[in-house]
Amino acid sequence: MHSFFLRIFVSFWLIIVITIVSAATLGYVYSERARAAVQNFEISDSMLAASEALQAGGRDGLTGWLRSLPGVTSSLVYVIDERGNDLLGRHVPPPIMVALKRFKHPGNRRFIAREGSNLRPARPFTQLIGPDGDEYTFFVLPPQGA
Fold first, then answer.
1. Which portions of the chain are predicted below pLDDT 50?
2. Contact, 50 vs 62, CB < 8 A?
3. Which residues is 122 bridged to in the sheet?
4. What is the C-alpha to C-alpha distance for residues 31 and 144, in angstroms, rounded to an integer?
5. CA of 74: how far to CAs of 3, 15, 52, 99, in Å?
6. How does pLDDT run across 75-112, given as a tens digit for each residue?
7. Is 129 left (phi over 0), alpha (psi -120 to 50) or beta?
8. Cα distance between residue 136 and residue 83, in whole Å
9. Which helix (H) or strand (E) holds 126?
10. Closest CA to 124 of 135, 137, 106
11. 3-state SS class at 75
C-alpha cells in the first residue's frame, strides 16, 4: 500500500514537471519566433508596400496587404482608419487609442506629403492617404517584453 501511494505521488510531481518544462519550451520558441519576425520586418519598406497596396487597391488592397503579413508580424502592425477602427477588425490596444486621442486633433496635424504620393510621413505617426482621400494611420507595436 505504501508503494502505491508513492507511485501516485511521484506521478503527480512528474506530470507537474513535464507541464512546466513544456510551457517554458513553448514560450521560448514563441518568443524567438517573435524576435526573429521583428528583426526581419523592415518598417520603412513595409510602409512603402502598404502605400502601394492602398494606391493600387484602395482600402481593400491595404486590408489584403495587412492579411498577407507573416504570423507574428501581423499581430504587431495596425492600420487605423479615421474612425479609430483597425482595418482587420481587431481590438485596438490601449496604447494606440491613447496616441490617437493625443495626436489626432487638427492642431497637431503637421503632414509632409510628397507631390503625387499617398504616403504622409507624419510626426509622430505615418499616415497613408487613400485614393478617396481617407486617412489611415500606420502603427507598429513593439513585441511585449522587448
1. 105-113, 146
2. yes
3. 111
4. 9
5. 53, 35, 18, 20
6. 678 888 888 888 888 888 888 888 887 776 444 444 44
7. beta
8. 9
9. strand 126-129
10. 137
11. coil
End-to-end CA gap in the chain: 52
List the 77-80 sheet strands across, edge first: 77-80, 135-140, 126-129, 119-120
Cα–Cα dist 20/68, whole Å: 34
Against a cut of 0.70, is the pTM above it? no
Dist CA 1 CA 145 (whole Å): 49
- 3-state SS, residue 69: coil
Classify residue 107 by burial, with Cβ atoms within 10 Å: 0-12, 13-18, 19+.
exposed
